[in-house]
């Protein structure tokens, strides 16, 4: 069946409008996405760099002594154990040793500092007190989802793997209350050896150049999809003794790209609908 001229005109104008709208909104989205990512990583750098100064000299001494104790108690760090694919982990401490070291006052002090860094990304000012893993206010959760300390593994050449010394969320915790421990709710115990993901190979670079590094884009590992910053913690002699890592989770409140995608989709649908209506009126 042959289409009438008016029908052809409507289809042509709708297709043209859709193509122009998609191209324009695609350019707008990519530009806005880049700006948002730069803003988010910049905010991560500001918070994490400021947070690194929470670690006083006594805390830095605790980092060094705790690292030495973990390395002394760990399972043999053989080449096979350290040969991890990007994103994989190896728990170097037996469970009993990990639990014992997690009750150590040095570890608990470091965890409190990491939780303060997380709490600094909430919108509510609160008095200084002991912080639990569970957010104090479910309506005002921290924008930073994870804060943790990483230390080098002596047997790993070129910092191909790192070891988690402390994590603000070192225990499994059902944060959303659904009765299921999802990936981002899994425990990250002391002594966990980790191979940085391919999409964020500079995670361990603070140990090499003493500079702050951020991921260029979202990357995925076993705990979820993140953008991250890695900040060196330097001893009095200039040696990098640890790196402070902070993460924004893709599903977290800090990620505004989801809202941007929704706006772009609504604008595209609206542009196509208006174009179709105008084309129909012109055709008549």
Task: Offer a concise description of the structure.
43% of the residues lie in helices and 16% in strands. It is α+β, with helices and mostly antiparallel strands and 284 residues long.
What do these coordinates show?
- The chain has 284 residues and is α+β, with helices and mostly antiparallel strands.
- 43% of the residues lie in helices and 16% in strands.
- Strands 1, 2, 3, 4, 5, 6, 7 and 8 form an eight-stranded antiparallel sheet that branches.
- Helix 1 runs antiparallel to helix 7 and helix 2 packs across helix 5.
- The mean pLDDT is 85.
Per DSSP, the total helix count is 7
Structural class label: alpha+beta
Q: Helix fraction?
A: 40-55%
Low-confidence stretches: none
Largest sheet, in brief, is: 8 strands, antiparallel
Rounded to an integer in angstroms, the radius of gyration calculated over CA atoms is 24 Å
Percent range for β-strand residues: 15-25%
List the SSEs and their pairings.
Elements: H1 5-52, H2 57-73, H3 79-82, E1 89-91, H4 95-102, H5 105-119, E2 146-152, E3 162-167, E4 192-194, H6 206-209, E5 213-214, E6 219-221, E7 224-234, E8 240-249, H7 257-283
Antiparallel strand pairs: 1-4, 2-3, 2-8, 3-4, 5-7, 6-7, 7-8
Kindly list the characteristics that best describe this protein:
284 residues, alpha+beta, 8 strands, 43% helix, elongated
């Amino acid at each position: 069946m042959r289409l009438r001229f008016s029908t052809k005109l409507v289809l042509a104008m709708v297709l043209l409008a859709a193509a122009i709208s998609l191209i324009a909104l695609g350019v707008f989205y990519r530009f806005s996405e880049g700006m948002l990512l730069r803003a988010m990583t910049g905010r991560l750098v500001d918070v994490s760099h400021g947070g690194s100064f929470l670690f006083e000299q006594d805390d830095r001494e605790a980092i060094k002594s705790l690292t030495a104790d973990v390395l002394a108690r760990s399972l043999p760090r053989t080449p096979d154990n350290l040969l991890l694919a990007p994103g994989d982990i190896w728990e170097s401490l037996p469970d009993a040793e990990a639990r014992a070291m997690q009750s150590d006052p040095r570890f608990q002090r470091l965890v409190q500092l990491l939780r303060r860094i997380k709490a600094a990304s909430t919108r509510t000012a609160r008095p200084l007190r002991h912080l639990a893993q569970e957010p104090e206010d479910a309506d005002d959760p921290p924008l930073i989802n994870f804060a943790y300390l990483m230390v080098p593994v002596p047997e790993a050449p070129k910092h191909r793997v790192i070891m988690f010394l402390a994590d603000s969320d070192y225990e499994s915790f059902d944060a959303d209350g659904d009765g299921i421990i999802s990936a981002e709710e899994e425990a990250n115990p002391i002594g966990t050896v980790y191979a940085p993901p391919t999409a964020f190979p500079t995670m361990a670079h603070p140990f090499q150049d003493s500079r702050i590094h951020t991921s260029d884009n979202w990357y995925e590992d076993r705990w979820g999809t993140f953008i991250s910053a890695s900040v060196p913690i330097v001893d009095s002699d200039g040696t990098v003794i640890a790196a402070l890592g902070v993460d924004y989770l893709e599903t977290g409140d800090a990620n505004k790209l989801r809202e941007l995608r929704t706006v772009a989709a609504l604008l595209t649908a609206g542009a196509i609908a208006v174009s179709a209506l105008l084309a129909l009126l012109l055709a008549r």
